[in-house]
Amino acid sequence: MAGLYIHIPFCKQACTYCNFHFSTNLKYTGELVTALHRELAQRKSFLPGRRISTIYFGGGTPSLLHAGQIKSLLSDIRAWYEVDSGPEVTLEANPDDLNPLYLRQVREAGINRLSIGVQSFFDEDLKFMHRAHHSGQALDSIRMSKDAGFENITIDLIYGIPGSSLDQWRQNLFQAFELEVPHLSCYALTVEPRTILSDWIKKGKAAVPDEEETIRQFEFLMEEAERRGWRHYEISNFAKAGFESRHNSSYWEGTEYLGIGPSAHSYREGERQWNVANNHLYLKALAEGLPPYESEHLSPENIYNEYILTRIRTAEGLDLFKVPESFRAHLVQCAVKHLQQGHLEREGNFYRLTRKGKFIADRVTVDLFL
């Protein structure tokens, strides 16, 4: 089994916190889609003999594509790749792009899972984050998606926004639960370099997120999800039984995948590839029939570190027997401190983050690295 990711590098406007690759110049959308078709044809031998079980349109804002473009891309994927009979096909979407007609069209095109970038149900938060939608559109987009027949829906929410309170975060969560979406991806607001938020903080126009308040909101999130019987299957992801993201889970499990589009990454055993994060250079390469990517062969140390980085965030945790034998002693030794401090727990050959450990997951990860 393998995954296929398609990066759509366009947005209507720049969110304050985002450091993903995108452009707000939508003039070249048609040319970009043509290039995606070319890359799909060019890369069809990257995963020989692998069945594509998940397809993910990410970005950027994939819902800026019209349904015909999505249908055409999926048609090429099915023509050139061996696709599973029941693939999970996800479309990331912004609330302001969704309407009943569009939802019906993308569902008919083959999309069966929606990831809606709500971020907050409070207009003041959305304004601070420079989102293109308002709270009413967020609510309507979820209701319309369900009316259009989508059952597999996830929404993104952000906590730890400067000036936000635990009560506001509680209301955001309760609104999501009331709407009965079966999956939540919840992220702490982080200050990434070269973002609007980073610039605001440097100029004193915005406050740094309050770490203690962020911890309180994350703790409430975990407690409330557990109380409702949701599965906390990855640090930022919560799901009702059976609604875990198959595509994202494949990343954490080390499954091979192909990335199409500017800045997209690909992985197969022992090799990593990454496409140029520049729309113009990407278009130029594909127009000239050239590969738009660079690649590297991963050392055993790289493979070990990537395993730690991805798996420690999951509910399953680290399997000692999946670590190369030459590195097992290192893992066992480095884990001792965190076992004693209650950040990790061990069950047989598995090491997992405890509730306490999830608050410092990055620190634990770095300590376990080679």
Helix/strand structural class: alpha/beta
* Straight-line N-to-C gap: 29 Å
CATH topology of the largest domain: Transcription Regulator spoIIAA
Query: Largest beta sheet, briefly?
Result: 9 strands, mixed
> In order across it, which strands form the biggest sheet?
7-8-6-5-4-3-2-1-9
Q: How many DSSP-defined strands?
A: 15
Q: Estimate the mean pLDDT confidence.
A: 97
Overall 3D shape: globular
Q: H/E series, N to C?
A: EHEHEHEHHEHEHHEEHEEEHEHEHEEHH
CATH-level-2 architecture of the largest domain: 2-Layer Sandwich
Q: Flag low-confidence runs.
A: none
Strand content: 15-25%
User: Radius of gyration from the CA trace?
Assistant: 21 Å
For the record, the CATH class of the largest domain is Alpha Beta
Helices and strands in order:
Blueprint lengths: L1 E7 L20 H14 L9 E8 L7 H14 L2 E11 L6 H10 L3 E7 L3 H6 L6 H13 L5 E7 L6 H13 L4 E6 L7 H7 L8 H17 L3 E4 L2 E3 L6 H7 L4 E4 L4 E4 L2 E5 L3 H9 L5 E5 L2 H12 L6 E2 L5 H16 L3 E4 L2 E4 L1 H4 L2 H8 L2
Helix pairs in contact: 1-2, 1-10, 2-3, 6-8
What are the main properties of this structure?
single chain; 370 residues; alpha/beta; Transcription Regulator spoIIAA; Arc Repressor Mutant, subunit A; 2 domains; nine-stranded mixed sheet; three-stranded antiparallel sheet; 14 helices; 41% helix; globular
Structure description:
The protein is an alpha/beta fold and 370 residues long. The chain has 2 domains: 251 residues, 2-Layer Sandwich (Transcription Regulator spoIIAA); 68 residues, Orthogonal Bundle (Arc Repressor Mutant, subunit A). It is built from 14 helices and 15 strands. The strands form 3 sheets. Strands 7-8-6-5-4-3-2-1-9 form a 9-stranded mixed sheet, sandwiched between helices. Strands 10-11-12 form a 3-stranded antiparallel sheet, with no helix packed on it. It has a 3-stranded antiparallel sheet with strand order 13-15-14. It is globular and about 55 Å long. The two termini are 29 Å apart.
